[in-house]
Amino acid sequence: MEEKKLIRKQIFKLRKECTDSQVEAWSRQIAQKVAELPEFQSAQKILAYADYNHEVMTGFIIEEAWKQGKEVAVPKVVGQDMVFYKLTDFSQLEKGYFGIPEPARGEIVQWEDAMMVMPGVAFDPQNHRVGYGGGFYDRFLEKHLQIKRVAVAFDFQILPSVPTEPTDISPEIIVTENKIYQLTK
Question: Which tens digits make up the pLDDT trace of 71-117?
Fold first, then answer.
């Protein structure tokens, strides 16, 4: 879709213009908000993406999860699918698909009862999401509907509205440095 392409271009440009210290400061604020969510507190297992290219940095969320004795897994792209590997140390990550950090080794996990920290390019206040265009998260989540979905984003990634498709699976919660958007049932 043309509109999604334009949105991606616009957001990537804004992300590029952020300084590393801005990205880090905002990511720390977001991590703190995520850690306070009841969904995070009650989850024993966290599925999180490894950040790349000025995305919200997930390392702070992962460290907090470890500190609280939770298990963490990160995705690796295998063909058209994402496989989650248990992460016990950041040294397990190496550059993978499109240069995105992925687990090079470790135990593959199939967690149904988990909270997922989702990435995305843009969102709207109705919790619609524009991803990177690969459909990996939608395909994974349609098979794992009981996983709690929490997206993390910077404020500038929240647009008044974004285009949606029937196959899109929305996050239930979006956390930015200043706000939390809850999907009303």
Answer: 999 999 888 899 999 999 999 999 887 788 999 888 999 999 999 99
Please say whether the beta carbons of 73 and 83 come within 8 A: no
- 175 strand-pairing partners: 152, 180
Instruction: Provide Rg for the chain, Cα atoms.
Output: 15
CB atoms within 10 A of CB 85: 20
For the chain, the domain total comes to 1
Give the domain CATH number at 21: 3.40.50.10420
C-alpha 160 chain-centroid distance:
20
Beta-bridge mates of residue 149: 116
Count of C-beta atoms within a 10 Å radius of residue 177: 20
Question: Distance between CA atoms of 168 and 170, rounded to whole angstroms?
Answer: 6
